[in-house]
Amino acid sequence: MVSRPRILIAGGGIGGLAAALALQRAGFEPRVFEQAPRLQPVGAGIQLSPNATRTLVQLGCGEALRDVAVAPGSLHVKSWRTGRNIFSTPLGTRCLQDYGAPYYHVHRADLHAVLLKELGPEPLHLGARCTGFVEEEGGVRVELEDGSHAWGDMLIGADGIHSSIRTAAFGPEQPRFSGYMAFRAVLPAERIQGLRLQRDLTSWWGPGRHFVHYFISGGRQLNYVAVVPTRTWHLESWSVEGSREELLSEFQGWHPVLQELIRATDRVFKWALYDRDPLPRWSRGRVTLLGDAAHPMLPFQAQGGAQAIEDAVVLTSCLTRHAGRPQEALEEYERLRKPRTHQVQMTSRGSAQLFHLDRPLQVLKRNTRLRLTQRFRPDVLAHRMDWLYEHDALAEAERFRGL
Questions:
Q1: What angle in degrees, to the nearest 10, is found between the helix axes of 393-401 and 304-321?
Q2: I need a labelling partner for 212 at 20 to 30 A (CA). Which of 39, 133, 226, 397 fits?
Q3: Around 315, how many Cα atoms within 13 Å sit in the side-chain half-sphere?
Q4: Contact in structure between 34 and 157 (CB atoms under 8 Å)
Q5: Catalytic residue among 99, 103, 180, 214
Q6: Could you confirm whether 224 is annotated as catalytic?
Q7: Mind listing the pLDDT tens digit for each residue in 141-176?
Q8: Which residue ranges of the chain lie beneath pLDDT 70?
């Protein structure tokens, strides 16, 4: 009996689990090494645009995902003080019609649970922090913090922006600090029933900062993220607590709806926002990177998780196509994925400037332009994200096979 190729994966986040599931379904033997002693995904929401949900459906997660998700009807971008719409664009029905896949808001814990249910517990190893690797004849040995090691045919670094696998492969690098920090919180929807918020994606733009909120967990919870400039907070961690009072002070004078959301919150977390300039290489020998380890990006296009999911299916397709030739597979993986992730990274950086204009004349010009476009050319706004949302990562990889 021929043994299945064993693929080691450092990191059990969204990208790592998606890669494990894609590989398992393609006949590989994935082994996921996650440093946490138990999986406790950060208590926060994630936006899954059609390019991500399409791929998750292809991986067999469609029905389970639908059960825990909220499908927003529209995106509304509002003025920070008055609440007046700057522009709106439909999401729910239109995404299904135009892109053939839904737009979802999901609690990260729910997404992890969906992926784990499809994957099964066997490939997952908890309390196993990867510290480095050694390439050997015909394979690679990953080294773990407890002194043990594991051998596989290849290794995927899906261990985030501070990836130890990337450091071991290419040396230390410093992520690029954006000058912004984000507050995040999740609160029970019943606490803010009086606000009568719709199941939409709502973004409030104001001087130098913005505030986004949407429902998750089937509508039982509301998730929000508030981005503000900072010169003093540089810690990139999702588990550091801020305070409600600190957040209120940052949004003093903003619309009463936001004041109520903040006051209804028990716990607020904060983290500094980093990305990296696109890396010249993702792979070395039988080792490659995926998700934030390869292309960390600012959250202003809500694409970090989505791009990791795309990576997972494309990498799997390349490994399947070049069976027994991992270096050729990894070269093809980079050729397919780097141009797209580079574009998303740069678009996310550019959005930071658009969202956070603070000079009155600049704000007036931006808002007027968008409102006029909404009135006279709504199709322009509705289809501005086509390049991102209509993308089918698996189909792209399959098309590459025939070239």
A1: 30
A2: 39
A3: 38
A4: no
A5: 214
A6: no
A7: 999 999 999 999 999 999 999 899 999 999 988 888
A8: 1-3, 41-42, 233, 236-238, 400-403
